[in-house]
Amino acid sequence: MKEFLRRLLYLRRGSRFHEELDQEIEFHIETRTDELEQSGVPRLEAIARARREFGHTPFVRESARAAWQIRWMEDLFADVQYAARALRRSPGFALTAIVSLALGIGVNTTIFSLTNEFLLNSPSCRNPETLAVVRLGGNSHLPMAEFRFVRNAGLFEGLAGLREPDEANWRSGEETHRLWASRVTTNFFEVTGVPVALGRPMQDSDQSATVISDHFWRNRLGADPNVLGRSLVLDGRPHTVIGVLPRTHRTFTGFGLAPDLYLPVEPDQTAVAVHLRLPQGMTRQEILDRLTSVGKELDRVFPQPDSSWTKDIRITPIEGFERLRSSSPAAIAAFFGLLMAVVALVLLIACANVASLLLARSSSRRQELALRLAIGASRSRIIRQLLTESLLLAMLGAIAGFVLNLGLTSLFNSVQLPLPLPVRLMIQPDTRLLLYSSILALLSALFAGLGPALKATRVELNSALKQSEHQVGQRRWNLRSTLVVGQLAVSILLLGVGFLFARNLLKSTTMGPGFDVDRTLWAYVRLVPAKYSTPKQIRAFIDREIEILRATPGVESAAINRIVPLNNSSATFEPFQIDNEPAKYRMRLQVNNVGPDYFRTMGIPILAGDEFKASDPDQVIIINESLARRAFGSRNPVGRTIRFGKRAPVVIGLAKNSKYFTLGEENAPAIYEPYAAQSLSEVNLNFMVRASRLSPADLVKPLTKALGALDPSAAIEVKPMRHAMGMALLPSQVGAALLGSIGLLALTLASIGLYGVLFYTVSRRIREIGLRVALGARPASILRMVFGESFLLVSLGFGIGLGIALLITRPLAMFLVPGLSPADPLSYLAVTAVLTIVAITATTAPALHALRVDPLTALRYE
Q1: At 578, is the secondary structure helix, strand, or coil?
Q2: Distances from the Cα of 470 to the Cα of 474, 764, 768, angstroms
Q3: Model pTM?
Q4: What average pLDDT does the segment 440-458 reach?
Q5: Tens of pLDDT along 299-349?
Q6: What separation in angstroms does the CA of 282 have from each of 86, 149, 279?
Q7: Nearest partner of 610 among 639, 579, 648, judged by Cα
Q8: Do 816 and 489 form a contact (C-beta atoms < 8 A)?
Q9: What is the torsion angle, in degrees rounded to the nearest 10, for the CA atoms of residue 245, residue 250, residue 256 and residue 260?
């Protein structure tokens, strides 16, 4: 340790040490000189003899320093200083390389930040690594009675319940607004350690308290400094604000979910996800054994008819990849995986650009490198120096990319996504981002610098020192050309994917979903649960609201429905039979409960039979064309019975196909059941309204006023159905924006690489061009030479990129609307047109440079 500290001290006092060492060496030589002179040796001979006896002074000096130096660190500092001086002498080269790497690294870190925010961020709590979600009997949530039973069993100290997202009606003045809430057991904050910025967290005694989010406090309450103790009327009852969450609060659900407030869970009206604080020193198997014993007691006290609480018991951490595997939809994970792969290709293009620049620069430094090899420098030492230059460029590019990341992520943070849930991004730099940026910088330095360094040090010394060059016939296909072809191939792939998603967005916005979105509105009503505790009360409210809606001027028809198309879904895999036939059908069915006039309101044609009437019994259904074709073939389904277990409803109508959950569906089978056939316990009501003469936008305010007049405590939201399709269009919009932008960036980088290679090639062939002109070559032949080389590179890049794109874009079919293939010819025709324009633009400047070559000057060119 003392030796290490002494070596570190030398780094700080190096210059002083060198002075003292030189003085000591001179002292030894002077002392020996005096001794020889006193013995009779002449002064000049004594000095020479003393120096010979002392030895080679530089060698002694280096040997003495070696005892104090950390050699690799000093060599690194020297290499960095030399690299910095070299880059300072070539500012244009350095700026181009840094910008290329900044774009590549900046885009990579931005997509990494997005992925981290949506999929990998930890919730705001104490020691998240010791928290887990418990599943009993395969259920993600437990009813409150079962939850209290498990908690009171006393097998675990830290058990808390959470339900998010949920809703609450906030009465503010004369208006009622819907808020998004997280319902929690009163010990939730104590068990999980969720921090608060103002006030205090919820406690067991807080049955009418709320902890609000920073966003709600600032945007809805005006950042009231006296908010603590303020009363908010939520679901008809006053709740006291006891705390405000930090601005960077992240929920346990993740995916950017940002509810407005936390409320105590209703004692008997909901179910909660069970969160367990893992006991210290207890193994996973011991925890599972305890949960199994609890499950056996649940089977005895709260038996389930078709299952057991001891089956499918799981413990899932609330952070990390295990949680990601258990909770992330495959499509979301696949989309972010696609984005990460795409931006990795962009970084490869940027590295290829820098590699091309380094190759061109090493050619101009050919004699310098040959001279260093000739005087004794090892090849590995020069490679290390060249890699240090690449590393310095990559680190500067990473710093610039980090600045770009901050700008792009702040832009993403301000975007409000058109989702039915409150999603707000709070992307911030963290240690993971810094580590990821550092890794990218190191990999970029290696990918961009290793090949040029190896090629630059593989030289023939005699020809390099004499600067011999061929006047004509120089080899044209080299590593730079290979890099450009690779850049173009990758950019064709990325641009093709971008155009594909742009086409997908265009088709999504123009295709018909199977119902009328131009004359319909969606009116959402949320009732206060405590005021509507029985199905009779809910039924009376629905009937009265339907009357009010139909009586509103400008309304042609109105209907109640459970599922709003393209906004949510209710699917079943329940097997069914036709009449008394033995064959069973198994398919994924979209199910919706709708009231009378629904099909007329939505503009969905009834092809056979009738739609629902108020007088219809519960055991009737309407099916769509796809289900009729699969189950009945060419037979008329009206009047037939479809048997679902003990239920056997009769088909009274055949409806035309439409879209139910996504625009990418293709002829999904569906059934419609009467709204009254379900248990009327939901306080979240959806009304569909058809406008007669007025545009839907003109009906928003009249309908909001009419619906709110019946019960002022109900939260009302009315929007044209065209505006309610944001969730259905979001994948196409995000794909077109992100992948299209990344594809254009990739093509820009590739075009810069093409321009650089062509310009450098023309510059290196000035003597050849001069000889050709002197021998009578016409300008057309010179242009043909330059453009021919350009289009050879472009053609190879396009062919390779197109072949790769056709192979690896097949999985993208899951993101595309019906009728659009990953091999869409129009997308690749557009790519071809764009690439041709880019190639002509990138080739024009080198071609004009070739035309301006003066034969006399070229023949004297050195």
Answers
A1: strand
A2: 6, 10, 9
A3: 0.79
A4: 86
A5: 889 888 778 898 888 888 888 777 776 665 666 777 788 888 888 888 988
A6: 59, 22, 6
A7: 639
A8: no
A9: -20
Q: Which helix (H) or strand (E) segment is 288 a member of?
A: helix 284-301
Kind and range of the H or E run holding 297: helix 284-301
- Separation of alpha carbons 626 and 588, rounded Å: 12
Q: E-strand spans in 261-308?
A: 261-264, 271-277
User: DSSP 3-state assignment of 808?
Assistant: helix
For residue 471, name the pLDDT band (cuts at 50, 70, 90): very low
Contacting residues for 381 by C-beta, under 8 A, at least 6 apart: none
Give 365's contacts (C-beta < 8 A, 6+ positions apart).
456
Residues sharing a CB contact under 8 Å with residue 719, sequence separation 6 or more, in sequence order: 521, 522, 700
d(C-alpha 450, C-alpha 679), whole Å: 69
* pLDDT recorded at residue 608: 93
Instruction: Give every CB contact of residue 480 below 8 A, 6+ residues apart in sequence.
Output: 356, 359, 360, 757, 760
Specify the 3-state DSSP secondary structure of 561: strand
Amino acid at 156: F
What number of helices (H) and strands (E) belong to the chain? Answer: 26, 24
Give the other-Cβ count within 10 Å of 85's Cβ: 9
- Asked if pLDDT for residue 476 goes beyond 60, the answer is no
What token pair was written down for 384? 């290390």
- Position 279 scores a pLDDT of 86
Asked whether the beta carbons of 190 and 222 are under 8 A apart, the reply is: no
The CA distances from residue 613 to 540, 594, 616, 653, 721, in Å, are: 17, 10, 5, 12, 24
Lowest mean pLDDT among 65-74, 357-366, 537-546, 577-586: 65-74
Mean pLDDT (whole number) for 364-386: 74
CB-based contacts of 32, cutoff 8 Å, min separation 6: 50, 53, 54
- Cα 76 to Cα 90, 447, 632, 753: the distances in Å are 21, 20, 78, 30
Amino acid, single-letter form, for residue 777: A
Alpha-helix runs per DSSP H in 39-90: 43-54, 57-66, 71-89
Q: Is the pLDDT of residue 610 over 90?
A: yes
Model pLDDT for residues 227-236, shown as the tens digit of each residue = 999 999 999 8
Question: How far is residue 822 from each of residues 268, 375, 497, 575, measured CA to CA in Å?
Answer: 50, 58, 8, 34
Q: Helix, strand or coil for residue 233?
A: strand
Written as six digits, the tokens of 739 are 């992948």
Tokens of 470: 């061929």
* Res 110: pLDDT: 93
Least confident residue range of 19-23, 463-467, 787-791: 463-467
Closest CA to 316 of 328, 307, 305, 332: 328
Q: Which of 82, 100, 739 is nearest to 400 (CA)?
A: 100
156-209 per-position pLDDT tens digit: 888 999 998 889 999 988 889 999 999 999 999 999 999 999 999 998 888 889
